[in-house]
Amino acid sequence: MFSCHLPSKQDLLVIVHLVCCVCGIGSLSMPYIFAQAGPTYSTVAFVLNCFFNTYATVALSHCFLKLRHVPHIHTYTDLAVHLWGRKGSFIVQATQLTSCFLLPVAFLVLGGATLLPAIFDGAVDMSTTLWIVVMAVILLPIIYIRVLHEAYIVLISGAAATFIADVLATVDAYVAHGDELYEPTDNVGFTNVLDTFGSFALAYGAALIVPQLQHHHPQPEKMPTALVYGMLLISGFYVTLGALGYAHFGC
């Protein structure tokens, strides 16, 4: 059911939603990810994660296409219940609740311990714990947005800010450090490779939004192609960032 065709307006909206949901502040660490395990292992990890995540996302879309005439299947959990009964519901909800709990913790710590203190350095003197609480309060209105299409402005703003930050950081690295190069490390360990796989896996988590995107698409049979375009676009962005940083600093 995959066909190579030019994306329509609705396909472009799907691609934009997918890229905006996946592209986050973690993209700034792409040069570090490539340097952490060296170019060979990092490239293997990148290709495997790109392939398997794209395949899983498209396969999920195909599942919803096959069952689109079943009236009670609208969400990821509905699909799990249809396939595995209550056991499937428990498995999906447990994994999603775990992700919804752990991901905000990581980003709240990043924002409260690094971003906000750096932005307000010298102007506001607060502890790291208080900064984390402040960031959580700021994000509360966004958390209460019920469905994906209501968060369109937030998605675009967040992704645009991330893209601008990536570009500025890359340009600053080249301008500020000039021709300064570093020797790449030779002591790549098994832990470094595992961390690389984990970082890439986090960068590709997009399955949860597929049901909503497909439910609102007027031609859902075109969804698999749009998803492939979106995953390839974000993959190209990631590998470009990683290659630029690694080519300049080496480690």
From TrEMBL:
Lineage: Eukaryota, Sar, Stramenopiles, Oomycota, Saprolegniomycetes
Domain Amino acid transporter transmembrane: 15-250
Single GO MF annotation: L-amino acid transmembrane transporter activity
Claim: Transmembrane helix is one of the keywords in the record: yes
Name by which UniProt lists this protein: Amino acid transporter transmembrane domain-containing protein
Membrane topology: Multi-pass membrane protein
Assigned keywords, A-Z: Membrane, Transmembrane, Transmembrane helix
Location, primary (coarse class): membrane
Record's subcellular location: Membrane
Entry keyword annotation includes Cytoplasm: no
Database matches in InterPro entries: AA_transpt_TM (IPR013057)
Entry's transmembrane regions: 12-34, 46-65, 100-120, 126-145, 152-176, 196-214, 226-249
A Pfam family: Aa_trans
Gene Ontology cellular component annotations, sorted alphabetically: vacuolar membrane
